[in-house]
Amino acid sequence: MSDTPLVSVVLPVYNGAAYLAEALASVQAQTYRPIEMIVVDDGSTDASGDVARQATSQARLLYQANQGAGAARNRGVAEASGDLLAFLDQDDVWVSEKLAWQVSALDADPTLDIVFGHVQQFFSPDLDTASRARLHCPDHPQPGLLPSALLIRRAAFERVGAFERGWRVAEWAEWYVRAVDLGMRAVMLPQVVARRRLHAANTGLAARNAAPEYARLLKARLDRRRG
């Protein structure tokens, strides 16, 4: 790996106009360079594409019919040029040193495949009081086993393989389980690298009603081990 490898940042968006500009600004604010930004508009029906164009001239904007976040991430990876890959969800934001810390960790240990960091959750300012009362927002950082908190070597991502389509909310969990089963070497940095927004349409909150998907994920893992 070169001293300053290119980091490809893939940001899938679907009807994310409300928060996309802030997410893109947090990428532009990174102290690490070089980076490339790839925004994949996954069939949005709102102004996400316009927001992306207005927010930055540095991002490459791709369009596709709506296929889900996993398919959008795959499209971005296919178009990426970097040896390192990072993902950012449309409603999350990075701290400015996120990539610098994670690239340094990979550079210090060539055997590492993946670097995660801690995540601080926060209530979106547009979330009403009643909705906040129904949600749990930890007041302390938590280990971030999330796409927005990850940096991975491209070669490692290719060993794990693309995100599977056909999952409503569990495409990330399915991918991560495959990475663990393949023995990918990962480290969790103590620093907060991302802030995760809690809002009314947050996909992660919908996971509460996705027990059948996680049961299917567990079965698929057991089937792989038996095979």
**CATH architectural designation:** Alpha-Beta Complex
- Largest beta sheet, briefly? 9 strands, mixed
Would you identify the regions where 5 or more consecutive residues have pLDDT less than 50?
A: 213-224
User: Which structural class do the helices and strands define?
Assistant: alpha/beta
> Which radius of gyration do the C-alpha atoms yield?
17 Å
Model description:
By secondary structure, this protein is of the alpha/beta class. The protein has one domain: Alpha-Beta Complex (Spore Coat Polysaccharide Biosynthesis Protein SpsA, Chain A), CATH 3.90.550. It has 9 helices and 9 strands. Strands 1, 2, 3, 4, 5, 6, 7, 8 and 9 form a 9-stranded mixed sheet that branches. Strand 2, helix 2 and strand 3 form a beta-alpha-beta unit. Helix 1 (17-28) packs parallel to helix 2 (48-55). It is globular. The relative contact order is 0.17.
Short description:
The protein is α/β, with parallel strands linked by helices and 227 residues long. It has 9 helices and 9 strands.
Set down the secondary structure blueprint.
Blueprint lengths: L6 E7 L3 H12 L6 E8 L5 H8 L3 E6 L4 H11 L4 E4 L5 E2 L3 H11 L5 E10 L5 H6 L7 E3 L6 E3 H7 L10 H11 L4 E13 L4 H4 L4 H16 L1
Parallel strand pairs: 1-2, 1-4, 2-3, 6-9
Antiparallel strand pairs: 4-8, 5-9, 6-7, 6-8
Helix pairs in contact: 1-2
Task: Supply database-style keywords.
single chain, 227 residues, alpha/beta, Spore Coat Polysaccharide Biosynthesis Protein SpsA, Chain A, nine-stranded mixed beta sheet, 9 strands, globular
